[in-house]
Inverse folding.
């Protein structure tokens, strides 16, 4: 099956060449690589021109999209794509050499018309990058076919997503009014048209995560703020309560409510409140922090990291800070879209 790869670019001079090399070097050669510059001012466009002239193995199509936003850039790329399927990744990603082959293997004309893959951190060096490798954009460990967007499942990042060209036509491409969360919105509309998305952990890309706390928190806030918007747009009514090891969901009651009581900030706040009520219970706060430390260490070992004592405690702090910022983003979005998302 012929696959066109679409990559939006905005001020990605430091990352785009590694991305292009990884896509051009795929074992299953793409039909074309379409790179859409979205108003870069850092010399990305000139660098792209140099790379495309030197590229021999795969045709590289360069174009510009004046309307800002990744959704607009991807729609521009879709309009130029000649392949039966369009695979999306980002300028700060590096694709595994078998990425497109594993996407192709998961595509099924009779049922699966879109494929999502796993996303790992790419050679993280700073503590904040290592932290995101543990907790950001990680997928499932086994294959699964999804037929519905539930807010907690069924939404996938365009850092690693491939969709049939006719499906993209059927849903009208990406919603250009969305600056954040346009990928999950696309997935929701794919399901509404009766198509399914298959997740496979074998299709892998490696993401160069944000390298500063400020950038990471800004991204997390934007993602969290988009959750209430998805609730308002895709559900007439829904009630979700997430507790440790329990996920309660119904659409029988009126209203849109999503209570996630599993985040690290809420658990820590609960232990502090209990300690204020009965001071000996402050030990629960200490035990919970030690639990987070041990969990980070174990998760890091599973990914080949051996964190220092200082790094591990720094990541405990980052986890609490990130979850608190995401809670804030959901609250702000709740006020804007008149839902309850906390």
């Amino acid at each position: 099956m012929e696959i066109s790869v679409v990559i939006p670019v905005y001020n990605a001079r430091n990352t785009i060449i590694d991305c292009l090399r990884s896509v051009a070097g795929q074992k299953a050669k793409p039909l074309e690589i379409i790179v859409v510059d979205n108003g870069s001012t850092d010399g990305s466009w000139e660098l792209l021109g140099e790379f495309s002239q030197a590229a021999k193995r795969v045709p590289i199509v360069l174009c510009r999209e004046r309307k800002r936003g990744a959704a607009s850039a991807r729609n521009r790329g879709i309009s130029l794509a000649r392949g039966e399927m369009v695979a999306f990744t980002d300028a700060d990603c590096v694709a595994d050499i078998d990425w497109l082959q594993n996407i192709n293997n998961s595509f099924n004309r009779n049922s699966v018309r879109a494929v999502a893959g796993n996303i790992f951190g790419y050679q993280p060096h700073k503590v904040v990058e290592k932290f995101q490798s543990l907790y950001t954009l990680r997928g499932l460990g086994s294959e699964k076919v999804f037929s519905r967007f539930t807010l907690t499942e069924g939404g996938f990042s365009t850092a690693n997503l491939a969709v049939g060209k006719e499906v993209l036509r059927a849903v009208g491409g990406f919603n250009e009014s969305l600056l954040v969360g346009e990928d999950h919105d696309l997935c929701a509309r794919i399901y509404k048209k009766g198509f399914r998305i298959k997740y496979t952990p074998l299709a892998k890309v490696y993401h160069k995560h944000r390298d500063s706390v400020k950038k990471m928190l800004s991204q997390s806030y934007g993602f969290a703020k988009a959750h209430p918007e998805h609730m308002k747009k895709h559900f007439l009514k829904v009630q979700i309560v997430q507790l440790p090891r329990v996920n309660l969901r119904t659409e029988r009651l009126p209203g849109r409510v999503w209570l996630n009581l599993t985040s690290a900030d809420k658990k820590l706040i609960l232990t502090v409140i209990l300690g204020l009520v009965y001071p000996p219970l402050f030990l629960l706060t200490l035990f919970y922090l030690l639990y987070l430390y041990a969990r980070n260490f174990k998760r890091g070992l599973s990914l080949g990291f051996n964190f220092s004592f200082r790094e591990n405690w720094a990541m405990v702090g980052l986890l609490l800070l990130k979850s608190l910022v995401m809670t804030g983003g959901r609250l702000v979005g709740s006020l804007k879209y008149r839902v309850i998302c906390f």
Remarks:
- The longest strand covers residues 196-207.
- The chain is about 45% helix and 20% strand.
- The first helix runs from residue 16 to 24.
- The radius of gyration is 21 Å.
